[in-house]
Amino acid sequence: MMHNVHHMADGAQDVARKVGALNERNIVDHAAFAAEYQVNVERFWSKVDRPSPQSCWEWSGALNKGYGQFHVGRSSSSVMLAHRIAYGLANGKLPEAVCHSCDNPRCCNPAHLFGGTRADNNLDMTRKGRHAKVKNAIRGEKHPQAKLTDTEVAAIREKYARGGATQRQLAARHGVCQRTIAKAVLGISFKNVARQWVMN
């Protein structure tokens, strides 16, 4: 029994040490949350790209329906959504639902996350056009999440098809991420725009 107590104490100290090291890099982590959910904090943050405090911190690990997922505990089948872990590490507890203010499912920046209920999450999805019924009804520049206009997409597709610019160059020119450009030129997004310039 005493051996188990000492083992648990050593484990808590190890978590605290790792959390302390991360705090030196201006990341606030709650040791109690990490211990409760058995989160390997260093390994978790190593899978998050953090270019700046204000930007999206995109998950580089495994994805499930666009959302990051991370193994916790000792069982390989125990997984949690990455953005929920990020919220928990920053706030010390988990609400019923964790929503993205940036609408980027891969984002793990605690500044872009807010807690609520499942009802709040559904309302947020509907308001932003991400609910299935709303999402399928609204296309192109009228979609609440659209970052480009229909005219811009038509021009982007033409320029890309003619080899006038790379996806990275087009993304920088229009102030969006490369993934947004890729979806546009491949016809995954903006399906309402004429497809004559879509690359196959």
From TrEMBL:
Residues 81-122 form the HNH nuclease domain. InterPro entries: His-Me_finger_sf, HNH_nuc, Homing_endonuclease_His-Me. The keyword Transmembrane helix does not apply. GO terms for molecular function: endonuclease activity. SUPFAM superfamilies: His-Me finger endonucleases (SSF54060). Keywords: Endonuclease, Hydrolase, Nuclease. This is HNH endonuclease. It comes from Gemmobacter megaterium.
